C-alpha cells in the first residue's frame, strides 16, 4: 500500500513545450473560458498545465448573431465568429492574469489571428508586449472570412501557412505555435511547411467544418449557416491528424480535439502529442476538468507502469 502510494506520488506528469515547462500536459484550448483574466485564472487554479487565451485580432470583431453554439450528444458546434475586443483590450486582460499565472506556475499561450498575412504580423507584434510564454496563430477557424477566403484557408495551403508563420516570426521572439485545420487533404504537408517557415510547435486540430439543419423548421440551425464541430465526436479525426503531423515534423505537437478523459489524453500522447488541448470537455465535465483528466492520466500511468509522460508511446 505504502509502495503504491510512493509510486503514485513519484509519477512525473510534467512536459516541456518549446522550452516552457508545464506541470501537466493539459492545456486550455483557445475559445473556452479564456476570454477574460478571471476565466484564464480559474482554469489555472483548477489544474490546467497551461492556458490559451481567446483568439484576438487587431481591430476586434463583434462575432455572429445567436445561436452561435449548439450541442447534441457527442457534438458541439459553434460559429461564434471570433468575437473579441481587439488586441489592445485583450492585452489588458492578459496583463491582469499574468502575475497570478506566474505565481501558479501556469504558462500563458496568447492566440491571435488576422485577415491578411500582414495583420497576423501586427497582432503578433502587439500581443508580444504582454510577454506571453507562447503565441498561437489561429490560421484554422472554419467560419470567419479573411482576405484569402475563410481563415482556415491560411492552413489549407502550404505557401499561405508558411507566409503567416514567417511574418509572425519576423515580429516576435516568443515561440510560435501554428494551429492547423483538419479540413484539408494532407495536414502533414501543411505542418511541415509551417515548421520549415520557423514554427516552434504545431497545434491540431481546430474545429471540423459542419452544418446542422432543423428539418421541422426547414432552416439551418446556426445563424452563420455553417460552423465548426468539436467535442468527443471529432476525437478520431484529431488523433489521426496528430499522428500524421507528429510523423512529419520534429517540433512538438499540441493534440486537440474531443479529449474528455485521461484515456483520451493518453491516446493523443500515443499519437505523438507532447501536450493535450482541452476545450469542449469543459462543457461536459465542468471547469474542474483539468485536474480530473490529470489524475486520470496519473492513474493510467500507474496502472501501466509509466513513471514519465515521455514514456507513453505507441507500439508500432
Ligand atoms: C465555442 C468555441 C469557441 C472557439 N474559439 C476558438 C478560438 O477563438 N480560437 C481557436 O483557435 N480555436 C477556437 N475554438 C476551437 C477549439 O480551440 C478547439 O480547437 C476545438 O474546439 C477542438 O477541441 P475540443 O473538441 O476539445 O473542443 C473554439 C471552439 C469552440 C467550441
Kindly state the number of beta strands: 18
Element string (H = helix, E = strand)? HEEEHEEEHEHEEEHEHEEEEEHEHEHH
Q: Class, according to the CATH hierarchy?
A: Alpha Beta
Across the major sheet, the strand order is 3-4-7-8-11-12-17-18
Structure in words:
With 316 residues, this protein is α/β, with parallel strands linked by helices. The chain has one domain: TIM Barrel (Alpha-Beta Barrel), CATH 3.20.20.70. It has helices at 2-10, 37-45, 87-104, 117-128, 158-170, 187-196, 235-248, 262-271, 281-285, 289-304; strands spanning 15-17, 20-22, 26-28, 50-52, 69-72, 75-78, 108-112, 134-138, 145-146, 149-150, 176-180, 201-204, 208-211, 213-214, 219-220, 226-230, 253-256, 275-278. An eight-stranded parallel barrel has the order 3-4-7-8-11-12-17-18, surrounded by eight helices. Strands 5-6-16-13 form a four-stranded antiparallel sheet, with no helix packed on it. The protein has a two-stranded antiparallel ribbon with strand order 1-2. Helix 2 (37-45) links the parallel strand 3 and strand 4. Helix 7 packs parallel to helix 8 (262-271). It is globular. Bound molecules: flavin mononucleotide. Residues 29-31, 54-55, 69, 76, 78, 80, 82, 111, 138, 179, 206-207, 230-231, 234, 256-259, 278-281 line the site of flavin mononucleotide.
